[in-house]
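explain this chain.
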Amino acid sequence: MQESQCHFFAGWSAGFVGTLVGHPMDTIKLYQQMSNVPMSIGQAAIKIMKKDGIRGFYRGMIFPLLGSGYLNSLYFGICDMSMNYLQRSRGHTRIMPTNSGWMQDLFVAGCAAGAVQTLITGPTEFIKIRMQMGKSVIVKKKIGENKYKRTVSMRLTVLDIYRKFGLRAFSTGLVITFWRFIIDGLGGGVYLLAYQMTRHYLSGQLNVAPGIYETIVAGGVAGFTSWIPVVPLDTIKSRIQGDDLKNPFFRGVIHCSWHLYQEAGILGFSKGFSMIIIRSIPVNITILYGYELILKGCKSLSV
């Protein structure tokens, strides 16, 4: 397997596992963002439990589970290709932290990867949010006499939205996704730079390969650092994409922002912030440490 393929494979595998770890916390965060009154993590968790039990925390997971692996492989793959291109244009044959322009190139590579990744997430986030909030098609399967099993169907949910509202429905929240495209692009650069700089700072030397401890701590730092500028936009996006498609309450980004401000003041834009930070640490440790581990194994098999 070529090195570029190893980056894609490692990114896909790490993203898949990261979704398994983070989806329940993402569902709690979404309930906090959608609530018209302040809601704590505990209150959101109890509401989900009462409504759907443990299964409620995993509503809508199948879509991001299938897509996150690809999105992460795309992110790390583009980072790798961008870094190779940028460093070679400076005359370097190997990518090393001690190379001239390494930090600048790392930030640019992360921005490029984050921006491309966001272009795909609009429709996928829309479907995931609909399913997490219980606005999905439920299928009843007979498992015995007078016994039925209720399951959420992603395929039928997508078809139902398309039949009722057409393709335009999947572009719901596109404007705010565009702004997230800009913010996430910068966030992607911050993410990669924070991760690599923390790893090498903890190891003490730029030319030494960081160990497990450095990688785990750096993953947590990169996670919450990159999420901080995105939280207000993520809250607005969740509100718009979770709105009633037939009779939408929000007329657009400005109306949603004004309503949030009227509802809870400036703090309304930070709904779910604590859960986002809590979630970002284990998820990004899983993704980044898993990525490094799988990449190392893949490269050793390719030799």
User: Anything to note?
Assistant: The chain is about 70% helix and 5% strand. The chain has a mean pLDDT of 79. The two ends are 9 Å apart (CA to CA).
